[in-house]
Design brief:
By secondary structure, the protein is mainly α. The protein has 6 helices and no strands. Helix 1 runs antiparallel to helix 2.
């Protein structure tokens, strides 16, 4: 349960940092503001594909493996984000990061129910979402501080790649609870 909370904190840290700093970052690397606006609108729209697709896969495969795949996509998308200087790389970012975060969103509740049951589901999802909120506060704040201090977002995106990789490790350590 602790691992799932940490994973959700990392997920929200990454998503809120990217969403909050998307337009300033793209402007800092020379992407026009109009294009940045399209990217900002595309992220939640493309994430819908991940919600449906990974939700469907999660019903058929080990949810931990599917959730790990969503974090791999987010991590790879964040890595592509480091090198956004062309529209092709920007498209790669959208096609990896958005479905990854959309899919991870639907799988957290499914894993929670499957691995920990429904007896205290409301309380448990509240705790998991609370952990996510903490990550959601840390992510954009840390990204802003890093940009102000270092003059670049690059290390922020690298850091999010690393944290997402660590989250994959935690996801795979989640063990199903045995019910009596």
């Amino acid at each position: 349960f602790l691992y799932l909370n940490m994973v959700e904190a990392v997920r929200m840290m990454a998503v809120t940092a990217v969403v909050t700093h998307l337009m300033p970052y793209l402007s800092s690397v020379g992407i026009p503001r109009a294009t940045s606006g399209v990217v900002a609108a595309a992220l939640p729209l493309v994430s819908i594909v991940g919600r449906f697709g990974f939700g469907w896969w999660g019903d058929r495969l080990d949810k931990r493996i599917v959730l790990s795949l969503t974090f791999l996509m987010m991590s790879t998308g964040a890595l592509a984000f480091c090198y956004v200087r062309s529209y092709g790389v920007l498209l790669l970012f959208i096609l990896l990061f958005a479905p990854g975060f959309g899919g991870s969103m639907v799988l957290r509740g499914a894993i929670l129910r499957e691995h920990y049951g429904t007896a205290s589901f409301g309380r448990m999802i509240g705790i998991v979402l609370g952990s996510g909120s903490i990550g959601g506060i840390i992510g954009p704040t840390l990204a802003g501080w890093a940009f102000d201090t270092l003059g670049s977002y690059t290390w922020v995106w690298y850091g999010l790649c690393g944290l997402s990789g660590f989250a994959i490790f935690l996801i795979l350590k989640i063990k199903p609870r045995t019910f009596s």
